[in-house]
Specification:
This protein has helices at about 75-85, 105-115, 140-145, 160-170, 185, 195-200, 210-225, 235-250, 260-265, 285-295, 310-315, 330-340, 345-360, and strands spanning about 1-10, 15-25, 30-35, 45, 50-55, 55-60, 85-90, 120-125, 150, 175-180, 190-195, 205, 230, 255, 300-305, 375-385, 405-415, 420-424. It is an alpha/beta fold. The structure holds zinc ion (ZN).
Length: about 425
């Protein structure tokens, strides 16, 4: 069956396109895109006047908790949350139980993803065995099993020499390397951003420099080895300054930030709100402003959610005992739209940050509406007003700092390979 999307505002950064038009899907692919398409024969028509049509959103940083912590999330609930949030593809981080450091685990994730069959799931494998930072995981076998990148996310790679080796080894398998940039010597035992708030709450702080020095180290290693490093969840003005310089010098680095870093500050943890406890921590207003500017300028390339589900077991405890992380798949679109409404970024730049650039960084298909591409696409109602409630979220976990917030804009239809996997 053909599907015709009519009169949408089509936003495709890969073609520099921002115009009203129609898009035709047939046999899982985009077959035509024009100001007006008229066809004969049986067709499902989706009237999209007032809606934005983007290449399917791609989240290059999520934690789906399977295998091993299915009480928090699994591939099915995580896929539903992704689809409801407008994402057609997600890259899942390897800090599962067991960690994804072997082809068996990679294959397990991919076979479960096929069973669930909602959004595309791209496994990210470990850099080091068991994420211990001692020996490298078998990159070649992991690549062959279907891993799209390597990262020790959740943990930094402590040893700069091992990181260098990882980059050289990853180069021979064309595997992107994702860096969780954190200097453990500075962050150990920390709970929140180091500053007046940590002092006031009597909690050990994590200085912004813990990120800045680690971002510099990995950017310098990208220069040294010539192999690209992607910096995960950038949260500080200092890291942005390093990235700006690295890009000016032409070092092969890319970076992502998450909606919580451009929306919230460390003040969100006041009252010991464990749903705002995240690593890296929410930072100062100066940091938040630097992140926003970096998104507008192109110093930061992508928005990823770092969706990190935790159950009440891990969150409804004393602040120091609570796990780090918050969920984000279902609130990323409205929080990014806010940047558009504030005039900081254009709708086209939003599509670039959430789709085209993530596809390019991970070297996966998608991020485009060009005819003959797989029909992965997202329709967004930029005006819809809604309130974030636990009942409304598809994730198994409800650890969002945005519960009770009034949002504007959300995904209303998500299509993967020509199949509608979510419709509001
Ligand atoms: Zn991380």
């Amino acid at each position: 069956m053909k599907i015709l999307i009519r009169k949408a505002r089509i936003l495709d950064p890969s073609q520099g396109l921002d115009q009203e038009g129609d898009l035709l899907v047939e046999e899982g692919r985009i077959v035509a895109l024009d100001r007006e398409i008229s066809i004969e024969g049986p067709v499902e028509v989706i009237e999209a006047r007032g809606l934005w049509l983007m290449p399917g959103l791609i989240d290059l940083h999520v934690h789906l908790r399977e295998p091993g912590e299915e009480w928090k999330e699994d591939l099915e609930s995580g896929s539903r949350a992704a689809a409801a949030g407008g994402f057609t593809a997600v890259a899942c981080m390897p800090n599962t139980r067991p960690p994804n450091d072997s082809p068996e685990v990679t294959r397990y994730i991919l076979s479960r993803a096929r069973e669930v069959n909602l959004v595309r799931i791209y496994p990210v494998a470990c850099i080091s065995k068991a994420q211990q930072g001692e020996t490298l995981a078998p990159f070649g076998e992991l690549r062959e099993a279907g891993a799209v990148a390597v990262s020790d996310d959740g943990h930094p790679v402590r040893d700069a020499g091992l990181m260098r080796l990882a980059l050289e080894y990853a180069r021979s398998f064309d595997l992107p390397v994702i860096s969780h940039a954190e200097e453990p010597g500075l962050s150990a035992g920390g709970q929140v951003n180091e500053g007046p708030i940590s002092a006031r709450l009597g909690l050990k702080g994590i200085p912004a420099e813990a990120e800045e020095v680690a971002v510099f180290r990995d950017a310098a290693l990208a220069r040294l080895t010539g192999h690209p490093v992607h910096l995960a969840h950038v949260s500080t003005a200092g890291a942005v300054a390093v990235l700006r310089r690295a890009k000016e010098e032409g070092w092969p680095v890319t970076a992502e930030t998450a909606p919580h870093y451009f929306t919230l500050t460390e003040e969100a943890v006041l009252g010991y709100n464990t749903n705002a406890k995240v690593n890296p921590p929410l930072r100062s207003e100066t940091d938040r402003e630097a992140i926003r500017e970096a998104l507008a300028e192109g110093v930061i390339d992508a928005i990823a959610t770092d969706h990190a589900p935790h159950s009440p077991l891990e969150k409804e405890v004393e602040f120091p005992a609570a796990a780090f992380g918050l969920i984000g798949l279902e609130t990323a679109v409205p929080l990014t739209l806010k940047l558009v409404r504030e005039g900081l970024i254009s709708p086209l730049r939003m599509a670039e940050l959430l789709s085209t650039n993530p596809a390019r960084i991970l070297k996966v298909p998608g991020g485009t509406l060009r005819p003959s591409s797989p029909a992965d696409l997202t329709l967004i109602d930029p005006e819809a007003v809604w309130v974030v409630t636990e009942e409304d979220l598809h994730s198994k976990s409800k650890n969002s700092p945005f519960l009770g917030w009034e949002m504007q804009g959300r995904a209303v239809l998500t299509m993967v390979g020509g199949r509608i996997v979510w419709r509001r």
